[in-house]
């Protein structure tokens, strides 16, 4: 028997063995499917019916990469996502051939000026420079990996002039001065991993003129690593400022306020995606996170729906006043607005009590979260373009608008969206998911599972290895700088020398029939 015959026999036996094994497995699976009582499809169509569950499982990925067009994906379309990535990676965001916006539907627009401002006419800090790393695209072939080169790039920081700096808490012992209008919204350590928080902190510190909100999970060493200014958030669970019994610890609050980077405190009543307290699953509560939050490790954490320390606006304002007295630093509040009545009640109490927060963060219902419930994310709380004008108008009506700064949040991830929010009454804006994308988020929608495949929304040390801090921090910095540049660009187009001058007169609304009205008329 020659070698060819031997190889033929071996090949035949191997194929026969594989067929037999597959047949045995098929019979075994068939018997399981036919007798199980949970899935009717499998009882009627054993083995083959499993294809349905396979395609159902990979459906989100198929839609994201193949079937959704560039403008369809939710919560961020492919087009939205790419604009954020281009700013972060390449420090630019140029499009060709025209807009992909659907101009037939209703929407808000920035009113352009017939005589826009020249670059030299802008009231912008021209001296402060920032050096970052950005990618330069060399080739983008169809069947091979794109060829890119990392290069150092120096640019303006695009900060406001000193005289246009925004002061939060001018009457506080330690006011908070800001030279940029874009900062990072509340994202807790625990919801995000330590590498993500570190990369964001270092990137924001490089960009200058911005801030980082800790989220209700407490202040960690990772928030402090980049030297960026910090707004420390205090939620109903009092994480980071609670004693062993779960009561508010005023001594711990004082200790936190002595940290130079901590510039202000924010009392969180609610956030747009969940008008209730936060939640974090047990597997995310490591010993370190438990130490920072002052809770037990490896146990799920549920923050109450509201603070037990107060139950109405007067007692809320009293609580805020006490925090300000103890710390000497500005204190704000984060709210979700559901009606004009709520906004006016808030403004009326500010006038009548002669007390108020130094800033109000208005979070829109379209905002993101690590984990929430569908009914809350979809239907409770107004979106930012409805909520923001209600608060701004109510404060004006009661003559107290100049006493409070407004921070707006809710998918404000591009300069035009920010300009519209500023025109609607905001002084500053918060961004969360845009910053998550800068450090690698690919929208797998698994933030609640601790299984984020790119190491952003997870505390799993193995998964976090995917996130390289030394590379992602530059993307965060590039994103902030490019966003501020775009904001000055759109201000110039509106005939303004600085984005701090956006007001209702600069925003118009076009309905489905093409009728145009001023924003102030909409109220």
UniProtKB/TrEMBL annotation:
Species this protein is from: Virgibacillus necropolis
GO BP terms in the entry: glutamate biosynthetic process
One Pfam family it belongs to: Glu_synthase
SUPFAM superfamilies, per the entry: FMN-linked oxidoreductases
Record keywords: Membrane, Transmembrane, Transmembrane helix
Molecular-function GO term, any one: glutamate synthase activity
UniProt key word Acetylation: no
Name of this chain's protein: Glutamate synthase domain-containing protein
Record domain Glutamate synthase: where: 145-496
Membership in a protein family: Belongs to the glutamate synthase family.
Ranges that cross the membrane: 6-30
């Amino acid at each position: 028997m020659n070698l060819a015959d031997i190889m033929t026999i071996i090949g035949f036996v191997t194929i026969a063995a594989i067929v037999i094994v597959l047949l045995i497995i098929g019979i075994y699976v068939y018997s399981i499917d036919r007798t199980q009582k949970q899935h009717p499809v499998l009882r009627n169509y054993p083995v083959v019916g499993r294809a349905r569950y396979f395609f159902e499982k990979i459906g989100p990925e198929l839609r994201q990469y193949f079937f959704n067009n560039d403008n369809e994906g939710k919560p961020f379309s492919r087009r939205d996502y790419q604009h954020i990535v281009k700013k972060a990676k390449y420090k630019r965001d140029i499009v060709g051939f025209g807009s992909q916006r659907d101009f037939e539907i209703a929407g808000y627009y920035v009113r352009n000026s017939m005589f826009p401002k020249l670059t030299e006419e802008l009231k912008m800090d021209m001296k402060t420079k920032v050096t970052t790393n950005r990618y330069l695209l060399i080739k983008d072939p169809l069947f091979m990996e794109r060829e890119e080169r990392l290069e150092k790039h120096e640019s303006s920081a695009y900060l406001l002039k000193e005289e246009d700096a925004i002061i939060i808490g001018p009457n506080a012992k330690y006011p908070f001065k800001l030279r940029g209008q874009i900062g990072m919204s509340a994202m807790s350590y625990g919801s995000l991993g330590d590498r993500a928080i570190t990369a964001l902190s270092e990137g924001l510190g490089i960009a200058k003129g911005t801030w980082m909100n800790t989220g209700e999970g407490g202040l960690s060493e990772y928030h402090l690593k980049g030297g960026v200014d910090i707004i420390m958030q205090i939620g109903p669970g009092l994480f980071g400022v609670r004693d062993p019994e779960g009561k508010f610890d005023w001594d711990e609050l004082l200790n936190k306020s002595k940290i130079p980077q901590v510039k202000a405190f924010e009392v969180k009543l609610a956030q747009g995606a969940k008008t209730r307290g936060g939640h974090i699953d047990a597997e995310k509560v490591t010993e370190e996170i438990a130490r920072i939050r002052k809770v037990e490790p490896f146990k799920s954490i549920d923050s109450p729906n509201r603070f037990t320390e107060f139950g109405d606006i007067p007692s809320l304002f009293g609580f805020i006043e006490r925090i300000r007295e103890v710390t000497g630093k500005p204190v704000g509040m984060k709210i979700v607005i559901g009606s004009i009545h709520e906004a006016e009640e808030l403004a009326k109490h500010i006038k009548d009590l002669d007390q108020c927060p130094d800033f109000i963060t208005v979070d829109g219902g379209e905002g993101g979260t690590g984990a929430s419930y569908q009914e809350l994310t979809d239907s409770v709380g107004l979106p930012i373009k409805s909520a923001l004008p209600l608060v701004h108008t109510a404060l004006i009506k009661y003559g107290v608008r100049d006493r409070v700064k407004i921070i707006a949040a809710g998918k404000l991830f591009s300069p035009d969206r920010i300009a519209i929010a500023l025109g609607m009454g905001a002084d500053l804006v918060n961004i969360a998911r845009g910053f998550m994308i800068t450090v690698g988020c690919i929208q797998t929608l698994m933030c609640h599972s601790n299984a984020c495949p790119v190491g952003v929304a997870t505390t799993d040390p193995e998964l976090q290895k995917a996130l390289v801090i030394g590379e992602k921090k530059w993307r965060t910095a590039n994103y902030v700088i490019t966003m501020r540049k775009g904001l000055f660009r759109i201000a110039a187009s509106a005939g303004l020398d600085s984005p701090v001058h956006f007001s209702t007169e600069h925003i118009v609304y076009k309905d489905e029939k093409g009728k145009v009205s001023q924003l102030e008329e909409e109220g």
